[in-house]
Amino acid sequence: MKVWLAENPRVTMHFTPTSRSWLNMVEIFFGIITKQAIRRGSFHSLDGLEATISAYIASYNTRATPFIWTKAAEYLIGKINRKRIINTGQLVRRIGHDQPAPLPVSRPNRRTRIQRRARQRYGADVA
Questions:
Q1: How far apart are CA 67 and CA 72, in angstroms?
Q2: pLDDT tens by residue, 83-93
Q3: How confident is the model at residue 94 (pLDDT cuts 50, 70, 90)?
Q4: Cα-based distances in Å from 95 to 2, 13, 41, 86
């Protein structure tokens, strides 16, 4: 592969994490076309299905607009870093401070809240 890449300098390799793959965008589009065109129709032949898909794609392309980011890159990167810290349980020291950064307070999940309410209403023997 390295030899082929050296012979074809116009082709460059980029690392793409599986969670951020172009394939995710394809899956999202298939979900959209399924919900908006295919599930609503009744098809008696493959030609009818193909015609519906082609018409949907043509209309989708005419109304397509570029995606406009609503959050700044710094905000998103900070959010990713905070999530990574929470998921790994690491304490990170703030720059210029000797104390570890406080861990964010997490809310109990829905199941925990329901169990807590049941215990309050019906007693401690409810799981």
A1: 14
A2: 776 655 554 44
A3: very low
A4: 41, 35, 58, 18
pLDDT at 93: 47
Q: How far apart are CA 54 and CA 52, in angstroms?
A: 5
Q: Where are the domains of the chain?
A: 2-62, 73-122
107 vs 99, more confident: 107
**Residue of higher predicted confidence among 15 and 117:** 117
Task: Report the length, in residues, of the chain.
Answer: 127
Distance CA 5, CA 109 (A): 49
SS (H, E, C) the chain: CHHHHHHCCCCCCCCCCHHHCHHHHHHHHHHHHHHHHHCCCCCCCHHHHHHHHHHHHHHHHHCCCCCCCCCCHHHHHHHHHHHHHHHHCCCCECCCCCCECCCCCCCCCHHHHHHHHHHHHHCCCCC
Using alpha carbons only, what angle is made at residue 116 by residues 114 and 118, rounded to the nearest 5 degrees?
70
Distance from the first to the final alpha carbon of the chain: 57
